[in-house]
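Archive transcription. Copying these from loose printouts into the bound notebook so they stop getting lost. Printout 1 of 2:
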Amino acid sequence: MIKQVKWLYMSVGFLPLSINIGCTHHSEPVHSAALYPTSQAGFSQAIKSGNLLFTSGMVAWDVKRTPLPTSFQQQLDAIFINLEHLAMEGSSSLSQAIFLRFYVVDLDADKRNIISQKLQDLFPHAYKPASSLVGVSALATEELMLEIELISEINNPRPQ
């Protein structure tokens, strides 16, 4: 019984230290000149925090927000090109992806299959990032068919 009380006392005693350590990390915005600007809309393209990179939802726009590709596959491919540009700017890469979140307008089996094939092409080895696939009724503009968020590690390449 005394050992249990001692352990409880020690764990409570260390709690404030672990909270303080967890709050001292530094976050900084990441922007790529190859992508459409977002700061005038009030958000960063991505944020580096600790050893992680968090992207905002990425769509298929280029730097000038020119007309989007009209097929789902073309938008998906363009988004992953944009994500790779942004990941590289943040000292990361798609190969270091931990998590991908997909927002898809009018989600159906065909779109799920296209996404699944793209992920298999991007991550052909044993390592595969976690992901979520969310069906939505609309995104920021009418022509957008999907949006993808990425969380990746920084400077920690994955073994193949």
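Printout 2 of 2:
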Amino acid sequence: MGFQPAVTARAQDIHDLDYLIPVINLITHLVNGLIFGCDVRYIRKRNLFAALYSNHTGLRSWTVATYLILVRSGLLPAANLFRQQEIQVI
């Protein structure tokens, strides 16, 4: 991504997190696409007598899967952040 070569192990850990950028980008586009698709599909003008769905198992499983991916992608940066807070005596 254009960073200078890492000298320390902590800098290399930060550089190793570059793979998260496309993952977060993909999830963002997927969620935005699903929201837009639902807006277009279930517009009130076209669907005057829409069925009332209060429970959708497929949607719930996608929500849980996305949540787990985002939690997993947040653990590594948090661990790096805590390691950066340690004071090293030279």
